[in-house]
Specification:
- The structure is a single chain.
- This protein is an alpha+beta fold.
- The chain has one domain.
- It contains three helices and three strands, in the order βααββα.
- It is globular, with a radius of gyration of 16 Å.
- The termini are far apart.
- The relative contact order is 0.16.
- This is Helix-turn-helix domain-containing protein.
- It comes from Streptomyces hyderabadensis.
- Pfam families: HTH_17.
Length: 73
């Protein structure tokens, strides 16, 4: 049995969830300025779609993991 490569109109089997800045604010319990500072300093990765910023869930998870490792050291 051969596997077919996904075409442009098919969704990947595990789509990346993107969060808005307010969603990240709520998850981190930080204010808007603090979240935008993290984005500006590239401590938290994001993408820009039009005029909107979106943060991949894995980027938020990586940020938290890195901060926990830094605090533990």
């Amino acid at each position: 049995m051969t596997m077919q490569a996904p075409t442009a109109h098919q969704r990947p089997s595990t789509p990346e969830e993107l969060l808005t800045v307010p969603q990240v604010m709520a998850r981190l319990q930080l204010g808007r300025s603090a979240v935008y500072d993290l984005l500006r300093t590239r401590q938290l990765a994001s993408i820009t779609l039009g005029r909107s910023r979106r943060i991949p869930v894995h980027a938020l998870t990586d940020f938290i993991r890195t901060r926990l490792e830094q605090d533990a050291a």
